[in-house]
Amino acid sequence: MTVRSFTCNPFQTNGYLVDADGEVVVIDPSCMTDEEINHVVRLVEIAGGALTAILLTHAHIDHIFGVQALVDRYGVDVHVHGADEPLLSRAAEQAALFGMDLTEPRGPFTPLVPGVPLRVGDRTWDVLHTPGHSPGSVTFVDQTERMAFSGDVLFMDSIGRTDLWQGSLPILMESIFQQLAPLGSDMQIFPGHGDVTTVGRELAMNPFLTDSAA
């Protein structure tokens, strides 16, 4: 399995292109400008196949800028937790809060169901419901590769903000300690912003977690 990252838009949001046995998926298409979208298209070409799905860790605007452009080009479904579908339908309102324009993505949308494994090529990924940053935040976990794509739940030395619609700090902390921490200290965290880290590093060094556990 090959993972290629890209960081786009004014929020510097990470997206990931994953090639698993010739099946290519994009997690959180943060690409906003034509140049950024074309960069992701080139990554799909480098992977050697057509895009087969878009997976969203959540539906805040910085993670969905490129959704419709990729849907229009490849005709793929967008997989998202149902609790975040209102964010998709209010994409224009979200964007306006930051002085930006974004047309509501039209889909098609496929609901992610936590506990129901997701097939990506020859891999089976666990889908964990990890709310707190948004009501429908999920984390995609590849146990074989020891990789977790966590969106804006957990970062190196930080955690996701909880002052947006239906955000909750207690719920976010519960997601981290009850869903991510049990994955094991060696589990790599591929976050929505910043550098790749591990569960173990964050439990030991992340001030938001160590202060909470003290």
What do these coordinates show?
This protein has 214 residues and is α/β, with parallel strands linked by helices. It has one domain (2-213): Metallo-beta-lactamase, Chain A, CATH 3.60.15. Helices cover 28% and strands 29% of the residues. It has a 6-stranded mixed beta sheet with strand order 1-2-3-4-5-6. It has a 6-stranded mixed beta sheet with strand order 7-8-9-10-13-14.
Characteristics:
alpha/beta; 7 helices; 214 residues; 28% helix; 6-stranded mixed beta sheet; Metallo-beta-lactamase, Chain A; 14 strands; globular
Strand order of the largest sheet: 1-2-3-4-5-6
CATH third-tier fold name: Metallo-beta-lactamase, Chain A
Distance between the termini: 38 Å
Q: Work out the number of β strands.
A: 14
The CATH class name reads Alpha Beta
Layout: helices, strands, pairs:
Blueprint: E1 2-8, E2 13-20, E3 23-27, H1 34-47, E4 51-55, H2 67-74, E5 78-81, H3 85-89, H4 91-97, E6 109-112, E7 118-120, E8 123-129, E9 138-142, E10 147-151, E11 154-155, E12 158-159, H5 169-180, E13 188-191, E14 197-198, H6 199-205, H7 207-213
Parallel strand pairs: 3-4, 4-5, 5-6, 10-13
Antiparallel strand pairs: 1-2, 2-3, 7-8, 8-9, 9-10, 11-12, 13-14
